[in-house]
Amino acid sequence: MPPSFSAEFxxxxxRLLAWRRDVRHFRPEPLPEGTLERxxxxxxxxPSVGLSQPWRFVLVEDAGRRQAVLESFLACxxxxxxxCPTERAGRYARLKLAGLQEAPHQVAxxxxxxxxxxxGLGRRTMPEALRYSAVLAVYTLWLAARAEGVGIGWVSIxxxxxxxxxxxxxxxxxxxAYLCVGYAVAEDDVPELERAGWERRCPLKRFVLQR
Length: 211
Ligand SMILES: Cc1cc2nc3c(=O)[nH]c(=O)nc-3n(C[C@H](O)[C@H](O)[C@H](O)COP(=O)(O)O)c2cc1C
Known about the structure:
This protein has helices at 7-19, 35-43, 63-82, 86-94, 129-147, 160-167, 192-195, and strands at 55-59, 105-112, 151-155, 173-182. By secondary structure, the chain is of the alpha+beta class. The chain has one domain: NADH Oxidase (3-Layer(aba) Sandwich). A four-stranded antiparallel β-sheet has the order 1-2-4-3, sandwiched between helices. Helix 2 (35-43) packs across helix 5 and helix 3 packs antiparallel against helix 6. Flavin mononucleotide is lined by residues 21-22, 24, 97-98, 154-157, 191, 193.
């Protein structure tokens, strides 16, 4: 029997979407045994072009590799600060843009650009559809995690070539996301960047046009 979703469920889903946050402040305790694997199973329910499932998850556990990723973040963040327009630089410098030092779990998500799963369907004119598929796995993971009180922070202020080398993954894998995973110090329904005065969410009408 296919499920029939109730009005209560839809209200809860709305709350899940509104309360999913990018988390940079993590409590140190690890997730219960098996939780991360279970969440990754749910991420694999994401749609993918041609059913290619190009996502590849690397659980980064080694302290030396974590340190190398942290150093990449610090260097890239410093460069980003230097490139910031003067009027924004002070605000940028005050932002916390990764939880790499506190998060108990770190997951690098790659896209296998050379996978033959899916037989190339849907990728001939838009090869980037493969990476979009991996992004959908990340978002699925993000929602599934938040639904059980687990926070995720996406770190893109990294040198992907450096992360690739540090994690020694196959050459045809491209970095899609580097995720910090764990319990958030605090929950909020407003993005941290909005609370910090960096940016505000805009209304739908700004994003829709008619032709
Ligand atoms: C592709 C992508 C990359 C991101 N990279 C970073 C990052 O490097 N550092 C960071 O603090 N947040 C990063 N974020 C989180 C966004 O800043 C965040 O999603 C946005 O401010 C909205 O907040 P919310 O996710 O809590 O709704 C990233 C988000 C996405 C989707």
